[in-house]
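JOB MANIFEST
job_type = single_chain_structure
chain_count = 1
residues = 147
[input]
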Amino acid sequence: MTAALAIVLSGLVLAIGMLHAYWGLGGVWPATSAERLAKAAVGTPGITRMPPPRSCFAVAAVLAGVATWPILAARLLSEPWPRWLTLIAGFAIAAVFLGRGIAGYTSVWRRHFCEQPFSRLDAVVYSPLCLALSAGFFTILLAGGPQ
């Protein structure tokens, strides 16, 4: 079961990373314009365009790295460093997703990211997805991967 969860988590995070890279290249899907995408994906008040491509590519790169963690943690690939580094990284990743998931339901976050449709999407998609990812990462951490 750990292996299947690792593959699903890795694939999901990699897909999200690829979407960010696509946005960095100027793509606007799933929106119909750059302005609509910015309002749906970023959500700060009055936003009219996406962050610069380098920001999208940076997020994509981080997510690509995060996507490798479940595969390493589940020992589907051998780790090129000591196991404890993988475990610390996993705890940090799970904690970041947990924090982001919880933040989406706070009043401070909602005031700062109040543009629609981001605010609605955050409540029903983005924050729950982050909480689910966190749960998945913590599950693999607790399982310790196949022995």
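[summary]
Residues 4 and 74 are 9 Å apart (CA to CA).
The chain has one domain: 2-143.
exit_status = 0
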